[in-house]
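pasting for the record
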Amino acid sequence: MPEGPEIRRAADKLEAAVLDKPLTDVWFAFPELKAFEQALIGQKVERIETRGKALLTRFSNGQTLYSHNQLYGVWRVVKAGQVPPTKRVLRVKLQTADKAILLYSASEILMLNDEQLAAHPFLLRVGPDVLDMTLTAEQVKERLLSKRFRNRQFSGLLLDQAFLAGLGNYLRVEILWHVGLAAGHKAQDLTEEQLDRLANALLDIPRLSYNTRGSVDENKHHGSIFSFKVFHRAGEKCERCGGVIDKIMLSSRPFYWCPHCQR
C-alpha cells in the first residue's frame, strides 16, 4: 500500500498536468456530485494537498474535492479526451484543454467547502503530515511525549495516522532500524538522545524517500539515495552490525528488523 512519499509524488503528477489551467470538462460518477459539474467548468485547480492518504483538490471557486483511495482507488493522467483501456470504474474526470486527471475505483469522494472540510471526521482525526515542511522535529518530539502517545509501543504507533500522517509499514521498519530501536519500545522509556534521534528520523526518512523518488539503490548505502536497510531483506546481513535481519508480524503487518543491533 502506498505511503506518504508515494501519495505526495502522485499528487505532484496530478498538479503538473492540470494546475492553474481552466477546466473544460468535469464529470462525477456519484449522483450527489453531479450538481458541481457545470459550476467547475472554467474554474482552475489551485493546488492538490495530501493529508496522509487523502487528497484535497482545491479549486479556484473555494470548493475542495476530498478523495481517499482506500485500497483500490487510483488516479491517472491522460491526454484530453483519451479513454484508457481498463477494467476499473471511473469515478472522477477533471479535464483541461490538453490533459485530464481521472480517478478510478475510489469510493470516498466528497465536494466540501472550508467549513465542511474542517469538520470532516478523517481530517479531524489525522495527525500532522510528515511531508509538511513546516513540521519540526521538536513538534514531533512533543507528540511522542504527549499523554496520548507516550505509552504506545512503536510497533502500532508508527502505523497510526492519528500520530503522524503519511507513515506506513516500510517507513516504520526503516525508521526504527535507523535509530537502533526495537518495536516494543515506548517514548516514555527513551533517553533524551534517543528521543531526539527518533523525532528527527520520523521526518528525515520520509522526506528522503520523497525527494529521491523512493529509489532503491543496492550499491549505495551511505549516500543521499533512499535505500531499504531492512525492509524485504529477511535473512540478509545487517549492514550496520553484520547480524541477520529477521521478519516477524507486528500489528498485523510484516516487520523487518535486526535483533542484534535494534535494542
